[in-house]
Design brief:
Blueprint lengths: L2 H11 L3 H17 L5 E5 L2 E6 L16 E8 L4 E5 L6 H14 L10 E4 L7 H9 L3 H13 L1
Antiparallel strand pairs: 1-2, 2-3, 3-4, 4-5
Protein name: YdhG-like domain-containing protein
InterPro entries: YdhG-like (IPR014922)
Pfam families: DUF1801 (PF08818)
Amino acid sequence: MSNINKEIEKYISAIDDKWKVSYEKLLDVINENIPSDFDLNFQYDMPTYVVPLSIFPEGYLGQNDEPLPFVSLASQKNYISLYHMGLMGNRALLAWFEDEFAKEVPTKLNMGKSCIRFTNVKNIPYELIGELMEKISLEDYVNNYERYRKK
């Protein structure tokens, strides 16, 4: 077992029982639907799908030792956070997600720039999250990141 997998297992084992099953299910949905050229890593103290340095050697913010993060999943004290960096600077994708979320979930979307917070495990739209993972390719994400960073 790789060190990354060990770190992820350790992280999951420390999650409160109230959130653990939903967290694991969400991580499975992401894993099943995210384009296969993203790598699962343990970055920022949480499981994070990244653009491999072999594909984008410039790294995040020009740091050639830090892969460009795409999607991270964190368990906080009172919610699960899904960080989807592809939503930043991609107005069409964000508008699609906001519209679909409103159709599927009875509560208001609790979101920051790239952070989607789930405060009730009964209101996690797993299928929608799976669709979101499929909406942007690694190549499109890197191109959007570079365009957004130049602003």
